[in-house]
Amino acid sequence: MENKKNGKLFIITGPSGVGKGTVLEKFFKNNKNAVYSVSQTTRNPRPGEVHGINYFFVTKAEFEKSIKNDEFLEWARYSDNYYGTSKTQVLTALNSGYDVFLEIETNGAQKIMEKFPDCVTIFLRPPNFDELEKRLRGRNTEDEEAIQKRLHEVKKELELSKNYQYAIENDKVENALEKLQKIYNKEKA
Ligand code: ADP
Ligand code: 5GP
User: Is 158 domain-assigned?
Assistant: First the structure.
């Protein structure tokens, strides 16, 4: 697929709890031409999450209808829920000249890399496994079963990080943010 204007597509992936949301939230404050692709999901909202801002929270039936109607650029099952990227939303933003950031897991990322070979791929790594677990638990948003499922994915996710053009270690948020900014500036130059 191609996009007509100048918007660039970025994928940012990394294990649950590594800090993708935290780093991106700060990044978007300083980069007004960069937009977040709001995904659809069947998981329940966390306290403070807003429909249309963090996700479009939909039922399983609604999600499956969207799959049937070919409304997703990619979708995946992760930890017992569906997650998907809206085709119209992303293509409209790209064609309007915005740089679009997809914050998605590894299977969806793979599909996007195939469809958009020019996309920029970034993997956010934790300093180590213990720190990742600490962050995930410290966020206090998942029950024990969900935490275990997310931790179970980590090894496979880290192995796949070699398929990404850039790896950023999220030791300190400011460091990760600075590295992300450098990548963005370089790719836009
Ligand atoms: P993700 O979006 O990757 O699942 P979050 O952005 O929700 O991760 O971050 C998970 C938790 O880790 C949050 O409580 C967040 O405040 C914390 N966190 C994020 N980055 C760092 C960091 N560099 N150092 C310490 N804690 C962090
Ligand atoms: P969370 O439940 O923590 O918000 O997200 C779980 C995982 O799903 C994260 O790795 C997140 O990046 C990923 N994710 C969020 N939206 C999408 C999407 O639209 N497609 C895919 N494939 N993964 C997504």
Answer: yes
Whether residue 72 contacts residue 64, with contact meaning beta carbons closer than 8 Å, is answered with: no
What range defines the domain where residue 93 resides? 9-188
0.70 exceeded by the pTM? Answer: yes
Supply the CATH number for residue 93's domain.
3.40.50.300
For the stretch 118-174, pLDDT in tens is 999 999 999 999 999 999 999 999 999 999 999 999 999 999 999 999 999 999 999
Angle at CA 66, nearest 5°, toward 91 and 68?
A: 110
Strand 39-41 vs strand 9-13: parallel, antiparallel, or unpaired?
unpaired
pLDDT tens sequence across 44-72: 999 999 999 999 999 999 999 999 999 99
Which residue lies with its CA nearest to atom 9 of ligand 1?
19
Q: Whose CA is nearest to atom 20 of ligand 2?
A: 84
- Specify if 3 maps to a domain: no
Q: Which atom of ligand 2 is nearest to the CA of 109?
A: 22
For the Cβ of 172 lying below 6 angstroms from any atom of ligand 1, the answer is yes
Among protein residues, the one with the nearest Cα to ligand 1's atom 20 is 19
Contact 66, 82 (CB under 8 A): no
Q: Give the position, in ligand 1's atom list, of the atom nearest the Cα of 18.
A: 3
